[in-house]
Amino acid sequence: SVVFCTDSTRIVSGCDDGSLCVRSVESGKQVCEPLKGHTSRVWSVALSPDGRSILSGSEDRTIRMWDIDTAATADEPLPGHSDSVCCVTFSPNGELIASASRDKTVRLWNASTGAAVGEPLQGHSDEVNSVAFAPNGEWVVSGSDDRTLIIWEVRAGTMLGEPLRGHNGQVNSVAVSSDGRNIASGSSDHTVRIWGKRTGSMLL
After folding, report:
1. N or C: which end of the chain has fewer CB within 10 A?
2. Which of 18, 10, 6, 26 is nearest to 61 (CA)?
3. Is a pLDDT exceeding 90 seen at residue 115?
């Protein structure tokens, strides 16, 4: 996984050795020592909306938050998942974190305190590979090895409608349009599909 920093002069990448590397876009060279804290490969990295923090999810089942300028991490990672953390993301206002895991759940966290928000979101029958916030932060969508997408209401922690079905392979990636009206999904069935959020219908 890789993400640009807000100033577009640096990128942060997650590595198989459990570290994160911060590199100069201009030179390609590392601008600081690797960020070390995870004990296994880093599957996902995300940048906070204010550009100050980097989030990482790892095969070691934990989530860590890092200060992008000091390369410091919080003393304790966010525990809770019982299997690899495949995807992490910030809410648009930076107040919440969502994570997707091979333990078949999506979890929500308070970005300031690291405390879990509500119970794990359970509805998928297989590994959850990806999660994305809506632009208004009121719902998230997740994609799973069970070939479905699920839309979750953040405040209530409940499913909105039935799972979205149409793929013939695992759903590896999900994204929400900037107006919140449509969802895109990428699958191992070699297709990308577009869904209407309001109706749950497949548009493409």
Report:
1. C
2. 18
3. yes
Region class of 24: left (phi > 0), else alpha (psi between -120 and 50), else beta: beta
Global pTM value = 0.93
- Rg of the chain (C-alpha set): 16
Let me know: does 37 contact 73? Beta carbons within 8 Å: yes
Closest by CA position to 124, among listed 79, 162, 80:
162
Neighbour order of strands in the sheet with 182-187:
171-176, 182-187, 192-196
What distance in Å separates the CA atoms of residue 194 and residue 111, rounded to the nearest whole number? 30
Residue with tokens 């790892």: 58
Strand 63-67's sheet: what is its strand order? 42-47, 53-58, 63-67
Number of CB atoms found within 10 A of residue 78's CB = 23
pLDDT at 75: 67
Q: Contact, 17 vs 38, CB < 8 A? A: no
Which amino acid appears at position 178 of this protein? S
Tokens found for residue 65 = 């938050």
